Amino acid sequence: MSEVTDITVHRPAGPKPTKDTRQNGIVTAYLVAYNVSQMLGWTVMMIIMVSHIFKTHSYLLLYEDVERILQICQTAAILEIVHSMTGLVRSNWILTAFQVYSRVFLIWGIIWSVPSTQNGLPVALWLFAWTITEIIRYTFYFFSLLPGPVPSFLVWCRYTFFIILYPIGVTGELMSIFAAIPVVRDSKMYSFELPNKWNFAFNYYYYLCFIVISYVPVFPQLYIHMFNQRNKVLAGAFDRHRQKAE
């Protein structure tokens, strides 16, 4: 795999302007500003988390240090659904919406709503997994908007780090949801029982159970999909490199 890092990859697949919008300087400038802002936000978050670990030698209270910036950066990612739906980037808006919703839901529907879930190993797991992933992802998108090739090492990181980070993140997410379920069940949080004036019933506890169950079929499919994307991008890059060498 070390040979892959030497490959120069020209415009690998990923969110970037379509042919029409690429000619629009305003759109490109906006996308550059968005990706740079997110890249800097997640980088600052990583610096804060590493500093916390070194100072306290513990992951406890880690969330408190990054809560506000995490909420801002991850909630702002809702814009990526708009980017996909309006054609500013070439991404499947349904897949984008699912990925963004799952994170926004965890931050607001679990961590913010159930404060007892904010400390502990589960939060540390998905915080570090998300942060490393997003720093790489937004840096990758930034370079894909610029003229010329994306740095080969960055491409390799983009399509390799998920192998370990994705399972770690999912594990932390599930642990956080499991920790919230008893609280939601006992408090009947965000639940509406009949009869009521809206004639509508909703049980947040059952919804969380459904979310947990949905991880079973969804996680393997997304994981396999990312491996397929990795093979396609890195194999194609290797072929181009070999052709140039010949």
Automatic annotation (TrEMBL):
What are the BP-aspect GO terms?
fatty acid elongation; sphingolipid biosynthetic process; very long-chain fatty acid biosynthetic process
Describe the reaction catalysed, as an equation: a very-long-chain (3R)-3-hydroxyacyl-CoA = a very-long-chain (2E)-enoyl-CoA + H2O
What InterPro entries would the database entry show? Tyr_Pase-like_PTPLA
Q: What class of enzyme is it?
A: lyase
Q: In which pathway does it act?
A: Lipid metabolism; fatty acid biosynthesis
Give compartment(s): Endoplasmic reticulum membrane; Membrane
Q: Name one GO cellular component term.
A: endoplasmic reticulum membrane
Q: Which residues form the signal peptide?
A: none
Task of the protein: Catalyzes the third of the four reactions of the long-chain fatty acids elongation cycle. This endoplasmic reticulum-bound enzymatic process, allows the addition of two carbons to the chain of long- and very long-chain fatty acids/VLCFAs per cycle. This enzyme catalyzes the dehydration of the 3-hydroxyacyl-CoA intermediate into trans-2,3-enoyl-CoA, within each cycle of fatty acid elongation. Thereby, it participates to the production of VLCFAs of different chain lengths that are involved in multiple biological processes as precursors of membrane lipids and lipid mediators.
**What family name appears in the similarity comment?**
Belongs to the very long-chain fatty acids dehydratase HACD family.
What is the name of the protein in this document? Very-long-chain (3R)-3-hydroxyacyl-CoA dehydratase
Organism whose genome encodes this protein: Biomphalaria pfeifferi
